[in-house]
Each structure stands twice: as C-alpha cells, then as structure tokens.
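Hi Q.,

Before the meeting this afternoon, I wanted you to have the zinc ion prediction in hand. No need to reply - just skim if you have a minute. The sequence and ligand are here:
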Amino acid sequence: MHRRLIVPSALAAAFLLAIPASAADFSPGAPGIGDPYYPASGNGGYDVSHYDLRLKYQPKTDLLEGTATLIATAKQDLSRFNLDFGLKVSEVRVNGKKATFKASGTQELEITPATPLPKGAPAAIVVKYAGKPSELKINDWTAWARTPDGAVAAQEPDSAVWWFPSNDHPLDKATYDVSVQVPNDVQAISNGVLQSTRPVGKDWTRYSWRSNKPQASYLTTLAVGKFDITTDKTADGLPVLNAYSKDLGDNAGSARASIERTTEVAEWLTELYGPYPFNALGGYVPNVTSGFALETQTRPFYSPRQFANGSNVSVVVHELAHQWYGDSVSVHGWKDIWVNEGFARYSQWLWSEKEGEASAQELADYVYASHPADDPFWTVKPGDPGAENQFDIAVYDRGALALQALRNEVGDDVFFELLKGWPAKYKYGNAKVGDFVRYAEEVSGKPLASLFDTWLYQPTRPGAPAAAKAEVLRAPGAGKLAQPKGWKKIAATNSIHEHGHDH
Ligand code: ARG
Ligand code: ZN
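Predicted structure with the ligand bound:
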C-alpha cells in the first residue's frame, strides 16, 4: 500500500526519468510473495494501492463479467509480473497499452506489459474477464458459495482468486471501489460505504461500494442475494449497514438480536483498543450452509448457523475485534495467525467477563483443565501452527490462554495498555508474532520471551510451574471443571465450520 498520492507531474516524471537503459536489466516478478504456508499466494515485483472492480453478476447462470483496474507501483525493474486469478481473461492493458498474458496453472495470471516497468513506475493495470466462479476449483476446493438467490465470496486465507485479479496476500493492502450490477430482485453487498444504488436499464441495478482504508484481499467480500437491510449511524457519524438474507427462517430474529448490537460492541472495543479504524460498520448474513464467520473489513460475514441456538453476541465481538486485530493490523505471513485469532478470542473472554458471565481467568482455567497433557490440542503451536492447523481450535483457545498468562505476568494496567497500544503502533500495517513479543517486553519492561515461548511455541502442555505462574492451575480440581456459562457460544465462533482447505 502506497498512501502517497501520485500527482500528474510525478507520474510524468516517473516516465521521463526512468526510461529503461536496456530491457535486459529487467526481470520477472516472483509468482509468490514469499509466504511459506502458501507459496502461490501473492506475487513479487509490485505493490497495489487501489482496486476498482466494475462487475456484473447474474445469479441464475453464475456468470460474472467485469473489468478490474489496479493501480500499482513497480518495486523492481519489471519485465513481467503475475496476478492471482482464476477466471477467464479476455484483455489486459498496462498503462493503456495491450499486454500479453497467459494463465499459467489455476491461480496465476502472467502479464507481460508492452513496455517494461522501471522500478518506481506507476502502473494502471486493466483486466477484462468473464466466467463462472463456481466452476473454478483449486485443489478441489472453492471459496465461492452459491446460494439459492445468489452467491458469496468470503473465505480465509483467500477468496479473491474466484472473483477478481489481485496480489492476493495481506502484505499488499489497498483501498477498494467495488461496483456490481445485479438483477433488480437481488442486491449486492460489499465492504465500506454504499455510495450509490442506480438503475441500469429496466431490469438491473448497480451497487457501488467504497472501502477507503488499506484492506487485505481476503477481507474484500461480495454477496449477491435477497437481503433485508438496516441502516443507522454511529455517534461519530459512521454509516452502519447490516444485511440479512430474506431466507434465514427461524434464525432471522436471533441474527438481528446479535448483529444489531454492532455499534454497541464497537463502542466497547473502542474503549479497549482505541479509535475504530475504518469508514463504516455492519455485518451480513447470507443464506449459506457453511458455519463459520469471517472478519471481512467493515462488514463481517456471519453464517446463519452462528445464530441457530439463539442470539450470539460473542461472535459479533470476535469479528469486530478483528477489525483492530487482523484487519487494521494484519498478519505479516500466515504463520502469524495468532496476532489475529488469539486476540479476537480473548476479546470474547473480555466480553464474557464484562457481561458478568465467566471471567477470562475462569475461561482460561477451563481451557487448561479440559485438555489433558496427552491431548493433541497441545501439539499445535499457536505461534507457528502450520498451514494445516492454521484455524485449529488451539490457535484460538491456547492462543487466548497465552494472553491470560501475559495478563497475570504484567498485571491489568500494563496488559490493557498493551492491548490499546498495539493497534495504534501497527495501524493499517502488518506484524509478526515476534513483533508482539518485543513490543510487550518494551512496554512492560519485563523479559517475556520465555513466557511466550512456553505458551505459543512448545508442542506440549505447559507444566505445573508455568501454569501455576500463569494462575491457570489455581483450581485444585483441574480436569473436572464445570463448563463456564457462555462457553458454547464462545467456542462456536470458529468450531462450527466445514473444514478449511489445504493448498
Ligand atoms: N477468521 C475466521 C474467524 O475468526 C475464521 C475463518 C476460518 N475459515 C474457515 N473456513 N473455517 O472466525
Ligand atoms: Zn477469528
């Protein structure tokens, strides 16, 4: 993400000054951004600052047609570069001129601009495409969910490949304008502010959304379907927009009773984590059959199954906490998933504590006690869980346990100072687990490396001394603790899901 504005004179200068001496000095950008968990994710050689997606979608046929315009900057002398994308492309232009391109494999689009791009040069990349996202399978897996009335793109660690070309990795965030033309009987929901709703001919309507703060590609979402929409404004004047599928049946009431508390939950989180980082709030519940939720930026995605046993504000707390921990401050690489999930889960514990249900300490005691030493739970290292365990329950529960251990070590004052300072320090950026460890040591003035090593990096249950120090062993009956009140809803946030995919 380059937040500097490229003014016309700078643009001209970049072209005039940076004429290549010899095309031989130019080399291709890497086909991956260098994430060992997902080597094909993202690309090297350039950085995108803005996406403009102008699309048309027909639910009956699943045909998605569109033009994506990416504003990027070359980070090296670039002879060609890749985008991550799976649909059929008909034309690519770079800075106005037609480029040659080929789809190599399932998710790489290799583009050779007519004129190589010198390091620092701006690039406007226009990609025209059409296809049926549901026909695209990568390793037998899809992030595109068709519903009876439309479709939804919301998945982690990637979903963009199914609907727009991108540098598909959280390291390259950008702003987004997403404009989608759909038949009149459905609506199109995306991130940020709904700028306009305009008729196109007599049968179609175009919905134009804008998300004006850096946003990771997997946090960019699209839902087409028949929705009941509620709108409001926060005390600070930010627009709130929630969308509920008209097809939620028995879950409609409990979904609304949860998601309509978004503003209230965000106010509480603002006290804990500092100013809300984005330009809009809300949530949406399409009529999908999957069970997970996702922190899609400004407008989390919720599966109806999250509300099948009554209201669940805890899942709203989780996804809104991610707006600070995950969306504004994002993982540097996918191995850093704890900087997202540990804190989002711990936020649910804090909400429980504030609501007078189980305290965070009681929840920590219960997590520790309910997993005996030989439980495979303890073999997952939240600080580096491996791609196959990226969303394992241990990343969430043991991840939150690590934060309770930290809280007991540094005391509440420093602990809450840490939680508020982190989203400010890395706002709109990326961070590694190690960055948090160093930051916590700096702020607290205590050596914490061994505490984090014990709770995040050892493939074993921390033994009695570490646990006693973290005060998770206070309960003498460890192993037979009663399930804390509210536990099931806290746990449901990530456990009601069909299994994630392995690349
Ligand atoms: N980040 C999401 C959450 O916090 C997890 C999504 C996991 N993906 C999946 N397909 N289950 O709830
Ligand atoms: Zn989460």
